[in-house]
Design a protein that fits this description.
It contains three helices and no strands. By secondary structure, it is mainly α.
Length: 87
């Protein structure tokens, strides 16, 4: 083949950076004051453990081991336990 006189397309590959990003330096004293304030905020925002919800999720996970017919029956039983009305 002969060399063509057309232009060459250049493709640049930018590798994804997986390291830690280095931020600007901050005074440690101001960071400590801010961190104590954020700890108080985080304590109020922590979700409480709901035992009923956890029990329901464990039952749902247990259903995954059954065959389809048994899953359907047990889902109906769980719904009735949670307060669903049968027709």
């Amino acid at each position: 083949m002969s060399a063509s006189s057309g232009s060459v397309e250049v493709i640049k590959f930018n590798e994804r950076f997986c390291g830690k990003k280095v931020g600007p330096k901050v005074d440690k004293r101001s960071v400590q004051n801010e961190s104590s304030e954020t700890k108080e905020d985080n304590i109020s925002n922590v979700k409480e453990f709901n035992i009923k919800r956890a029990r329901y999720e464990v039952m749902r996970f247990g259903l995954s081991g059954f065959d389809k017919e048994r899953q359907k029956k047990d889902k109906i039983a769980i719904a009735i336990r949670l307060g669903a009305k049968t027709t």
